[in-house]
Amino acid sequence: MRWWRPLLACLGLVLLASLVVLVARAYGVSVVPQFGEVRRVVEASGPWGPVVFVLLQVLLNVPPFPRTVFTVSAGVLFGAVSGTLLTLVATALAAIVAFLLVRVTGGRMVARWAEHPRAVWVRRRLDHHGTLAVTSLRLIPMVPFAAMNYLAGLSAVRFWPYLVGTILGSAPSTIAMVALGDAVTGHLPPSLLLVSGVCALLGLGGVLLAARRPLPDEPAA
Predict the structure, then answer these.
(1) Distances (CA, A) of 191 to 19, 39, 196
(2) Nearest alpha-carbon partner for 210 in 141, 130, 107
C-alpha cells in the first residue's frame, strides 16, 4: 500500500481549495456581493430552501456525483453552522439509501466493480473492522463517497456501525469544506481548511491500522 500517494492527493486538495478562496477574495468586489445576494434569496425561501437542498443532495449523491459540490455550496447558501448540519443530514440519508439499495438488490447494481482488487481489499476490512474501517476511509477526502456506500452494502458490515462510522468520518471534512464556502462570502478565514488535511492524515493512519490487523485467514503483518 503506497500511503504517500493518497497523502499527496489530500494535501493537494487542501492547497487547491485554499487557492480558490484566495482568488475569490482577490476579486471580492464583484464575487462576494453576488454570493451574498444568492444567500439572501435562499433565506427568503423559508424552510423550502433547506428541504430542497437536502433532497437534491440525497438524489445526486446516491449515484456517483461529487459530494464536495454540495458541501461547498452549503457554506455559500446557508453559512457554516446551518450548512454543516444540513450537509451531514443529507450525507447520512444518501449513505443509508445507497447502502439499502445494494442490500435489497443483492449487489447486482454494482457487481461489475465488486471484484476489483481495491474493492476486495476495502470489503474485507469492512467485514472484520467495521466501524474503524468506515470511519477511517470516510476521513480521507478523495475516497469516493458513493463507492464507499456500495462497497459497504456488499460487505458484512452492520447498519449501525456503518452509519456511525459514516457520520464520524464525514464530519471533519464536511466542516472544513462548508467553511470554505462560507469563507468565499467573506465570513470565515480559509485557515479552517487545515482541518481537512489533519483529518486526511488521521484517516490514513486508520487505514494503515486496519490494514495491519490480520484477518482470520491471513497472518499478522
Answers:
(1) 11, 22, 10
(2) 130
Looking at residue 210, its amino acid is A
Percent of the chain whose predicted confidence (pLDDT) is above 90: 23
CA–CA dist 64, 11 (Å, integer): 23
pLDDT band at 2 (very low <50, low <70, confident <90, very high): very low
User: Other C-beta atoms within 10 Å of 163: how many?
Assistant: 17
Q: Which of 161, 90, 89 is nearest to 125 (CA)?
A: 161
- pLDDT at residue 136 is higher than 70: yes
pLDDT of residue 46: 84
CA distance 135 to 84: 18
The C-alpha cell of 32 is what?
Answer: 462576494
Average pLDDT over residues 81-108: 92
Amino acid residing at 177: M
DSSP code per residue over the chain: --THHHHHHHHHHHHHHHHHHHHHHHTHHHHHHHHHHHHHHHHHTTTHHHHHHHHHHHHHHTTT--THHHHHHHHHHH-HHHHHHHHHHHHHHHHHHHHHHHHHHTTGGGGGGTTSHHHHHHHHHHHHSHHHHHHHHHHSTTS-HHHHHHHHHHS---HHHHHHHHHHHHHHHHHHHHHHHHHHTTSS-GGGGHHHHHHHHHHHHHHHHHHHSPPTTS---
